[in-house]
Amino acid sequence: MKIAPSSFTNQPYLIDGKASASQVIASVTAAVRAERQRPGLAVILVGDDPASTVYVRNKSRRAEECGFLSRQYTLSAETRGSELLELIGRLNGDPEIHGILVQLPLPRHIDACRIIKAIDPSKDVDGFHYVNVGHLATGALHEALVPCTPLGALHLIQEVLGDKLCGLHAVVIGRSNIVGKPMANLLLQHDCTVTIVHSRTLSPEAVCRQADIVIAAVGVPGLVKADWVKPGAVVIDVGINRIDHPGDYSRLVGDVDFDEVKTVASAITPVPGGVGPMTIAMLMQNTLNAARRSRIQQASAV
Ligand code: GUN
Predict the structure, then answer these.
(1) CATH homologous superfamily, domain 36-120
(2) 147 alpha carbon – ligand 1 mean position (Å)
(3) Residues that are catalytic
(4) In this structure, which topology does domain 147-276 adopt according to CATH?
C-alpha cells in the first residue's frame, strides 16, 4: 500500500513491522539456501544487563533460523577491554565469521569507541565503525554497512511512500550515533530535506510540525503529541520505553503518543511491532551482504 503524504484520512495506515521483518527474513533465508556459502555471525555480550541479554539471544536465534553459522560469546561484566580486543582480533581473522556485533552498552570500564574501531569494517554489521559511518555520510552506500535500526525504519518508510521521498521534509528527533545521525544521512541520500531536532532545539514541536516524515528516536515516552504532527505525515516511532506500573506489570511504549498521533498521521508504526522487529531483520540482511562481499573479494583476489 502506498500513501502520498497529502492523502490524509482519519484512519491511518498501521505499518506492520512484524510482517515486513518476516519478509526480509524469508528473503535472507532463501538466499542462504540458494547460495553455497553460509554467512557467519558472532554476537558478543559483556555482562548480564537483562534487556541486552534478551536482544542478544534473539539475534543469535534469528541467525540460526536464517541458516547462518551463529556464535554467541557471553563474557562476564568484569572482562577487561584487552580480553575483548583479543576476541575481536580472533574473529576478524576467522574466515567462517562475516559479521561481528558487540552489544551496547558495554560496562563502564570498557571504552566502547576503541572496541568498535577494532572490528574489521567489512565485518561491522552494526555499521558503527568510522569507516562505515564515513561511507554512509559520503553516499558510498554500496560499500557501507549501514546501522540496522535506521535501515529498518527506512524500509518501513519506503513501504508506505515507495521511492517518492525526493524533496520531502523529514524531521529526525534525536541525534544518537546509533539511530538519529545515520537516519538523517540515509534520508539525505534519498533526497529528503532533513532536519535533526534534539534536546537543545528551540520549539521542537514547531519544527516537527513542518515534517512530511517524522522519525522519533529519543527515548522519551510519548514525547510526540498530535499537535507536533502535520496532518497526513508519516510517523515512525523508534522509541522502546518500558513503563513499570505499580501492580507489577510493565508495558512498552514509544516516543510517540500513539493514541493522539494516529488521529492526524496518514501512516504510523506501533510500539511494539513497528521498527523493533526490523532491527534484527536488517542485521541478518547486513550479515548476508557482508558474506557476499567477502566472497566477491576472495574471488577477485585469486
Ligand atoms: N544496543 C542498542 N541497540 C543496539 C544495536 O543496534 N547494536 C548494538 N551492538 N548494540 C545496541
Answers:
(1) Leucine Dehydrogenase, chain A, domain 1 (3.40.50.10860)
(2) 9
(3) 59, 103, 126
(4) Rossmann fold (3.40.50)
